[in-house]
Structures are given as C-alpha cells and as structure tokens.
From TrEMBL:
Domain of life: Bacteria
UniProt entry tagged with the keyword Signal: yes
Signal peptide start and end residues: 1-21
Claim: Cell wall biogenesis/degradation is one of the keywords in the record: no
Location of the Putative auto-transporter adhesin head GIN domain: 40-179
Pfam family, one: DUF2807
Protein name (record): Putative auto-transporter adhesin head GIN domain-containing protein
Keywords on record: Signal
InterPro entries, per the entry: DUF2807
High-level lineage: Bacteria, Pseudomonadati, Bacteroidota, Flavobacteriia, Flavobacteriales
Length: 275
C-alpha cells in the first residue's frame, strides 16, 4: 500500500510539473515596480532569459520592473545561501521585464546560465569572487577584487574590466572573453575552441592553450610570461623581460617585443613567429 501511494504521489508531481512547464503567460502592459528585501546570499544563479543588473549595497534586495501580472510568476528564493531567480510560467510577451539585484559583502560566486544576461551597474567590489558562465549566457562588468576567477563554458561570452591581485581565466568549449586585465598575477587556461582577446598590464602571465583555441594578447603587456601551447592553438603574447616557451603539435605562437627567450620544449610542427 505504501509503495502504491508513493508511486501515485510521484506520478501526480511529475504530471503537475509538466503542466506547469507548459503554462504560458502574456504581460498586461501595465508596468509596476516591486522591491523585495531578501536575506544576504553568498552565491547567485541566474538562468532562463533574464536580463539582470547587479549592484553592491548595504542590504540584499531585488527590484523588478515588469507588467503587473508577471510579478507573481517570478520566483525568488534563497536556498542554502544561494539566490535563485526563475519563472514558474513561460513569459511569452512583456512590455517590460527588468531585474535589479543588490548584493552585499557576502557574495563570492555568480553563476549565469542558459540565455541569461548579467551586467554590473557600477564597479563591482569583492574580496574574492568567481564568475561561472554556461549555455549562451552573457556577463558584462568592471571587477575590482583581491582574487578573481572566471570560468567560461559552452557558448558563453564575457566582457570584463578586471583589477585584481590575482586573476584566473578558465575558458572551455566555444566560450569567448574580451577583457582589460590589470593584475600582478594572471593565468589563462584555454581548451577546446575557446577564444580570448586580452589587453592590459600584468607582472607575471601564464598561458596554457590547447586544442583549437585562440588567444590574442599583443596588447597585454607582461614582465615575464610562460606559454604552454599545444594542438592547433594559436596565440600572440607580449613580454618586456622574459618568456618561457613550450610549443607542441601544430600550434602557432607569435611574440611581440624583444624579451629573453627560454625554449623549454619545441616539438612536432609547432611554429614560432617574432614581431
């Protein structure tokens, strides 16, 4: 009897969930603004097709400007110190749907997925922060932090202005990033078909590029640079003092300026160019 009850309950839940997923709603075109104060969160996850502006403040809060009948279908939850923003019905049409999230010092991780877009209204100040993007999401912002990490996946794109003591980019699949980086230590790791175009000033720069990745860095000035490039990857770098090179496969490396060269390994059909 208990097993039959559980099976019936599960069937009901699945059926209800399916029906809910199929429900659609159109905006009334009567726009209103609602503000909701929420408990502080250490991470936030934004998905679907939300366009969200984030700003730092003393109190965690969400402001939604939308058609008045759409407020009730936007679900705001803080679970396990993570802020989730999602819809319980598919919004087919709206006159306006703008979301503004105010975060506090507690925030240290931002996840952007699916077709969501997140941008910083002003400079985003952190101690340590990690931004994770996936799907076809977008992130735009000026970051100032002690430690900053970007993990870019799938077809996600990020446009950044970063000032940090330590900066790490991990780029995978077909993700893309354009950034201005000012950081004593900068490490970029590119895999698969990822692309990066980076400008700025750093002291120590480490680049690892593999597969069919592309790194454009002739406007990124470093004091010392270490490059490990493999597969069919292509990269251009600029170093004032010294560069350590490991090149394999059919990779292509272009070097700007006249640093001291240290060839750690040069194998296969790798190519080295000097400009």
């Amino acid at each position: 009897m208990k097993t039959k009850f559980l099976a019936t309950t599960l069937l009901f839940v699945l059926t209800f969930t399916t029906i809910q997923a199929q429900e659609k709603i159109k905006g009334s075109r009567n726009v209103t603004v609602e503000q909701t104060e929420i408990e502080p969160f250490t991470a936030m996850e934004i998905g679907e097709e939300f366009e969200v502006v984030i700003v730092k403040g003393p109190t965690a809060m969400i402001e939604i400007e939308a058609d008045d009948n759409l407020h009730e279908v936007i679900d705001i939850d803080v679970i396990g110190n993570v802020l989730y923003l999602q819809t319980i019905k598919e919004i087919r049409r709206s006159k306006r749907l703008r979301v503004r999230v105010t975060f506090t010092d507690a925030l240290n991780e931002i996840r952007v997925k699916e077709k969501a877009e997140v941008s910083g209204l002003t400079d985003l100040l952190f101690n340590t922060v990690t931004i994770k993007t996936s799907g076809s999401s977008r992130f735009y912002g000026t970051i100032k932090a002690e430690t900053f990490t970007l993990i870019n996946n799938d077809n996600a794109k990020a446009e950044l202005n970063v000032t940090a003591e330590n900066t790490v980019f991990q780029l995978n699949q077909k993700s893309d990033v354009e950034a201005l980086v000012n950081s004593p230590e900068f490490k970029a790791d590119l895999l698969e078909d990822a692309e990066a175009k980076i400008e700025g000033d750093v002291k120590e720069f480490t680049l690892r590029a593999d597969n069919s990745t592309s790194f454009t860095g002739e406007k990124l000035t470093s004091q010392t640079c270490t490059v490990i490039i493999e597969g069919r990857a292509k990269a251009s770098v600029k170093a004032d003092n010294a560069i350590n090179i490991t090149a394999k496969g059919r990779s292509e490396l272009t070097i700007y300026d006249s640093p001291d060269f240290n060839i750690v390994e040069f194998a296969d059909q790798a190519s080295l160019f000097k400009k």
